[in-house]
Amino acid sequence: MDFNITIPDKSLIDQLIRKVNHKTKPAGSLGMLEEIAIQVGLIRQSLTPSLDNPCILVFAGDHGIAKEKVSAYPQEVTYQMVYNFLSGGAAINVFARQNSIGLRVIDAGVNHDFGAHPWLVQQKVDYGTRSFLNGPAMTKNQLQQALDYGKKVVNDVAAAGTNIIGFGEMGIGNTASASMIMSRICGIELNQCVGRGTGLDDRQVQLKYNLLTAASRMYPDISHPLDILQSFGGFEMVQMCGAMLRAAELHMVVLVDGFIATATFLVAQALCPAIKSYAIVCHRSGEKGHKLMLDYLKMTPLINLNMRLGEGTGCAVAYPIVKSAVAFLNDMASFEEAGVSQKTDE
């Protein structure tokens, strides 16, 4: 895999900070909005950045581990929810429509065949991964194919003029995969990574933990991010990883959703640390372990509404905050323009 991600040129930072500080407000009074405005300005290399054709990509894939009862829902919910996305009835559809965000659904590896649909991108690697209780979730060739597919879909979106992109997912069983990835990359014990997922009770969470502990013992030596992703990930997670990396490579603003998307981002930043400069974590998930992921990354989420749905819903709900940051940077008057006296030095 070859991605050339560089940290954004910092030559504009002093001008951006000066522009933010000379708006008609006390210094720092817009809090994180000021940080976001400067970050977006650096990503886009502009003192007047724009957010063009925002789009959320929802990657869907099935997991062999789901057959081991690690989810409260049966595996067929994955393909049923894809149909829900395509009919416009899911939460992500509602929030995307509300905020005028484009939506594409990617069949990365669902155990179902879909017909053609204008919102559906057909990039199936296989009909779901293998259970990582029986060996790696996918082959190296499948891993590479999925990474390439992720890169391709971002190229297509970028060609349509998008410069800000959110990432969501759908895949029954993928909190189990995310927990395994988190534990390996962050060096955190599994008992702090395994949560309720789609709504497991205490007994089911314990069974999930026991299962994942047994699986982890089968892979004592893997440490490279791609080996971790190959062993435990889903096709939707691998395609998302490739897509995140490509989006940063193209100097797009990368909006990261919750637990699954952040676990995928852990892999991406382990491969290319510079991707952090392009990423905004949209919300803190209610799923156990997400806070620890964010602490590891040293990244602050925009909102904390105790959401844990996935689908990119956190990206869609938080997008107006990013939009507000860019709006004040571009449209708010300076002290000089408004004829307002600045703070005195006395």
What does this structure look like?
- With 346 residues, this protein is an alpha/beta fold.
- The protein has two domains: 10-49 and 329-338, Nicotinate-nucleotide-dimethylbenzimidazole phosphoribosyltransferase (CobT), small domain (5,6-Dimethylbenzimidazole Phosphoribosyltransferase, Chain: A, domain 1, Orthogonal Bundle); 55-321, Nicotinate-nucleotide-dimethylbenzimidazole phosphoribosyltransferase (CobT), large domain (Rossmann fold), CATH 3.40.50.10210.
- Helices cover 45% and strands 9% of the residues.
- The protein is built from 13 helices and six strands.
- The protein has a six-stranded parallel beta sheet with strand order 3-2-1-4-5-6, with helices on both faces.
- Strand 5, helix 10 (259-271) and strand 6 (279-281) form a beta-alpha-beta unit.
- Helix 10 (259-271) runs parallel beside helix 11 (290-297).
- The protein starts with 12 loop residues before the first helix and ends in an 8-residue tail after the last helix.
Taking the sheet with the most strands, its summary is: 6 strands, parallel
Percent in helix: 40-55%
Catalogue the unreliable spans: none
Q: Regarding CATH, which class of the largest domain?
A: Alpha Beta
How far the N terminus sits from the C terminus, by CA atoms, comes to 57 Å
Q: Whole-number average pLDDT?
A: 95
| Envelope shape | globular
